[in-house]
Amino acid sequence: MIAAIFIQILIVGLLFFAAFKLFSRAGKRGSSAFSIRRLFHYSLLFFSVVIAGVGLSGLLGRTLDFGRVIAESRTDLARNLSFTLVGIPLTYLFGRWSNRNLKDDPSERKSLAWHAYLTIASITSLVVALYGLHGVLSWAIGNDPYRGSALSQLLVWALIWIFHLRLSGHIGDANRPQYLIGSAIGLSIFAVGLGGLVGNSIEQLINLEKEVLSIERTDPVVNSAINLLLGIPVWLIYWYRGALKFTRDFLWHAYVFLAGIAASFITLVVGLSVTLYDVLVWFFGDTGDDSAAQHFFSTASALGASATGLAIWTYHRSLLAEDRARTELRRIYEYIVSGVSLIAASLGVLTIIVAAIESVTPSDISASGAGSNSLILAITLLVVGAPIWWFFWNRIEREVLKAEEDLASPTRRIFLLMLFGVSGVAAVISLITGIFLLFDDILNSQFGMNTFRDTRFVIGILITNAAISGYHWAIYRSEKEVAVAIFQKGRNITLVGPSDEHIVQLLKEQIGGHVQLWISPDSGTPWNLQDLVELIDETDGKELLVINEKKSLRALPIQH
Q: Are residues 95 and 113 located together in one domain of the fold?
């Protein structure tokens, strides 16, 4: 079926391209036609590579199952044969076509379609090869039985990955999305492996007496170590030898702030919260008949997550140790952490209100153990969430008082409106629900303490969300007259100065719009992206001419 769909797509694409060639004047093609041609061209090339890879790895997997009775159906064999016989010739043809275009047309190497193809093909082959490598390593250490399919996936898709990675190396940091995605994949696998290794090791120390029965097909410690071994080289290749050396543009900072700092910090906080909750329950709550090993067995995973989050957060924070600039991405990070911690603290307040209402209802007397655990959960959320929110929110407010850029930040305005809006809607819904429950019990002659108990969550949600909504509405009212900074898009920027292969692309990512470079024989100093962005932001006008003089940059608005 996949081959049939692919052939139909191929025929449609070829017919479309043939019709375009036939009706275009003397082969003259505009930029939009080039985009359409590249879209079909590299899409078909990618599908050809995938089909050839699946077919080859399937056939090779049957061959590598040494001495085993192959129970695979003949249908699978027919699929692999058809994929191989169709995929390899098509990959060769589209590959030659791509090679000719890359040689004949200099703009082909800079096209979005070519960069997207390299990124998607490289990342796809990397993921499949890692899956095969995991199976091979599990077999090598005796954790899993031998599978020829795992070895064939590793061999075939690793070659495809290496080939595309080498192609990507020729275009340098212009294809940085691939390296950042690869870095995120390597970092994620590394985090899972490190967290699992720490957590599983602690589990074994806790469970020395084998009080907790755990049925695992494979040794979890060994499995985590394999993930660690998979993640480290991928992260080193894509990040340490690649993306770390790139220009620190918007995408680079987005990866560091969001993937490296925000995600790891949230993981650290959640892990510590679970650990603190388990400790408090053990000393002050109701653990039932569980022993210490049984109670704290699940805590080991939280400790592993905390250790991993701390390590990753510390490393990525160190990358920004010398970068004190207040960028919009830094603000996004601070508001994310502030918002998450505020939600945790508000859940703690909500839980306390619910527990307090439950404590005065006679039907909850027999549930004192569960009530104490609920109160401990509330305390944990408050102890963890409130200090973090207070620290980050105070820092945000200090920056707002110091710099007008923070006061006029679009991130701040969105944050205030979002919390006011979401909390306000939740409070209104809770109010409607509470009034309904109240009238329902009154009209059915059931009004009493049970009514109070039935509305405990409604009351808790109403109080916490009304407080959050009111607080942020008060801030918004005092700042609503402040004009929000709008990042100017769609501007036409003409650079005049020394040749730079990547400055146009980097500037486009930072400010958008149309950017072109005129190379001047009397070149000034090399382009500095940060100085360029600051100068353009400070200069009014939809069209700017930026001249790189020998000692400084000069921006001139173009008047029509």
A: yes
